[in-house]
Amino acid sequence: MRSTRLAAVLLVSLLLVAGGAGCGGDEGAETLTVNPDVQGSPQLQLEADPDGELAFNAEEAVGSAGNVSFVLENPSTRAHTIAVENKRGEQLGASRVAIKDSEFVIVSLEPGTYTYYCTVRGHREAGMEGTLTIEPD
Amino acid sequence: MKKLTAFLALALASFALVACGGDDDDGTTTTGSGGEATNGAATGGGGGGGGSELHIEAADTGLAFTEDAMTAKAGKDVALHFSNPQPIGHDADIEDSSGKVIADTEVLTEGEDSATIKDLKPGKYVFFCSVPGHREGGMEGTLTVE
To answer: In whole angstroms, how far apart are CA A52 and each of A12, A115, A117?
Structure first.
């Protein structure tokens, strides 16, 4: 009797812990907006995972046509870049390598969809990419 | 024994809930950031005659300060306070219209530093981050001293 209740209590607590851990999965669903309230070009303010996981803080972003500065804030010690390509797969620009630093690249964008990604070998394939949609005026 | 188990279960459950709340916070803060960084005039206090203050803050994320235009009152021994919430190193320097640096704080992450401007004269100045590439990326603004 006592052991049954013990098992039940443990099972419930395990389920609660598992449920809590599941919350982290929502992060990828976030849509980032290009921020126009900065000096110079409006910025898409991307962050690399602080622990060196191969992920940006957002896989979806929206913005307006014109110059867009892709800023990558990389607090980790793992090297990353930020690059942009159009639908045809042509690279429009790439930043310098950032290690515990922020780097940026400014590209001129018309309405359409673009892909931003890390150019370090294997990183894009592992998940360091996202889609920026430039909306028509 | 039963009580202990129940207590442990509760402790684990509350830990799970707390961890969950933390993640939610992360999710919402990353988008906005620069929203408040409009051209608001951040004034140096300047109250009690001399010894006024100037506050410059890096934005929550990106290559930006929270303000891109500020005003201050002229004076002696003006304190420049810089704060940086980011895990990326930044500083705040101020140069006059001839390009001469009149104030320079330390490059730091998630912290604050101060510097003193001995004699802040009326005129136009530029404040910027001196970490290579950051000023070009957008970390600069104008300071008007009256």
So the answer is: 33, 21, 15
Tell me if B31 and A31 make a contact (CB, 8 A cut-off). Answer: yes
Contact A63, A112 (CB under 8 A): no
Cβ neighbours of B12 in A, within 8 Å = 13-14, 16-17
Q: How far is B54 from B72, CA to CA, in rounded Å? A: 7
pLDDT at B15: 44
Q: Is A85 in the B-facing interface, judged by CB distances under 8 Å?
A: no
* A to B CB pairs, distance under 8 Å: 130
ipTM of the complex: 0.75
Sign of CA dihedral A9, A10, A15, A21: positive
Chain centre to alpha carbon of residue A68: 16
The answer to whether the pTM exceeds 0.90 is no
Give the long-range contacts of residues B47-52, CB within 8 A, separation 24 or more: B50/B75, B50/B76, B50/B77, B51/B75, B51/B76, B51/B77, B51/B78, B51/B79, B52/B78, B52/B79
Encode pLDDT of B56-90 as tens digits: 999 999 999 999 999 999 999 999 999 999 999 99
